[in-house]
Amino acid sequence: MLNTFDILETIRMIQDECLDIRTITMGISLLDCIDPDMDKACRKVYDKITRKAENLVKTGEQIEKEYGIPIVNKRISVTPAAMLAAACPGQSPVKLALALQKAADSCGVNFLGGYSALVHKGFSAGDQALIESIPEALSVTNNVCSSVNVGSTRSGINMDAVALMGKVVLDAAKATADRQCIGPAKLVVFCNAVEDNPFMAGAFHGVGEPDCEIHVGVSGPGVVRAAIEKYPDSSIDELADVIKKTAFKITRMGQLVGARASEMLHLPFGIVDLSLAPTPAVGDSVAHILEGMGLECCGTHGTTAALALLNDAVKKGGVMASSNVGGLSGAFIPVSEDAGMIDAARNGTLCLEKLEAMTAVCSVGLDMIVVPGDVTAETISAIIADEAAIGMVNNKTTAVRLIPAIGKQEGDTLEFGGLLGSGPVMPVNRKSPAKFIARGGRIPAPMHSIKN
Amino acid sequence: MRAVITVIGKDTIGILHKVSGICAGHNVNVMEVTQSVLQDMFAMIMLVDISAISTDFSALSDDMTALGKSEGLAIHCMHEDIFNSMHKI
Q1: pTM of the model
Q2: CB atoms B61 and A65 under 8 Å
Q3: pLDDT value at position A145?
Q4: What architecture does CATH give domain A23-191?
Q5: Of A26, A34, A338, A418, which is the most exposed, with the fewest CB atoms less than 10 Å away?
Q6: What are the sequence ranges of the domains in chain A?
Q7: In this structure, how many other beta carbons lie within 10 angstroms of the beta carbon of residue A448?
Q8: Residues in chain A closer than 8 A to B79 (CB atoms)
Q9: Do B81 and A15 touch (CB under 8 A)?
Q10: CB-neighbour burial class of residue A74 (10 A; exposed 0-12, middle 13-18, buried 19+)
């Protein structure tokens, strides 16, 4: 029998604590669209995406009404575009980006991810051309997202790719300098990228996945914060328990919505990504959860420990609630998308070095961080290398999404609007890593990669 | 199949009548109602059977939302599965 308390709790979570399904993402394989003629490939890509995702947005809206739960984003991820570009040597892959944008527009999704390349061990045909085209592709499209995997625990870190990505990030910012440098906000550099990630900008549809499937990304930092605020004097063990119970409820909702969407769209259900993804909205901040645990401001000493506790409890609570957990699964810490992080960065408590430490214990990495526009490509590459090293050694996904604010300095702000929020320009260490980055080559995989 | 309709807002004459009228219009049977009026605040939870619903569930939900807007009430219409999955193991 339904219980009044449970009903009211669910409604309060949705109405007052910003509980929502962050995204339903349809993963679509484009392997059958490969063609040596780029124009033909683009046509096949457009046709396949619009055929498969024709009803995605409509279905999402129907489920929203059925369960009374907001589904904020409907998105698509596709096979890394470099694999299609590989068949078309000498032809610009930007045409593919335009075809993806056209398909995204037709389907009505707000982001489409997969303008990607996987180069953790080296470049194969198509990879280099695709990576070099990223700045242009991101400036001529609005909703296409790009990602590049430069390292993994099994293969080490491709430092040639790391060096190249520093330039690409900077060029992407320059190419969109008139639009708040939005380009690199749609570009993620990964180590240990996952193949079934529903969250943007790093989503792509891995080659080991089925032809087409549905993933769900849940959210709910506001719900977790409201839950822990009810226990101001509890011990850490009790806090962990409260977070686990809350994460369970949030994830069960994701599982329900994902199962329903896959049933309605007649597609296999991929995974639920158990993430706490903040938005700039008041009451939807991961930083505020950490502050709710007893830190005066996110970024102070104790932040890494609090985040480790949060991340672990979210996973433990969520994992029982879903049949298939995947994606990135954990707490996200994107600075510009989190009201508490923005404040902490503005008042100087949260710095890049602390964020780097935090990435060792949470789900992703240095995310949506605005740096001064005059930072060198080598410094960006070095930040990527540091972050990839954390991922490689700790056997986890790490990512870098830095936005060089062209023409701006510390103290200035970039305003992206919407879910991407606004980011204060954060200080960066200016001592040069240029010689280290210029060496090129590959950082060997760590000892514990040899598991067989 | 059942759904839960919750109505919260300022008490006026005929709220229950209007909500159950919409249910009847969609061939939805009211199974249980709990309601309370505290001072002038009205709160109601209604359990309805939607197995013989004559329209789309989203049409019922749209009509409830429209009623909520015109009457200044917060009306939520949700399939019972969401409560079962969130609160039961």
Answers
A1: 0.92
A2: yes
A3: 97
A4: Alpha-Beta Barrel (3.20)
A5: A418
A6: 23-191, 218-442
A7: 10
A8: 66-68
A9: no
A10: buried
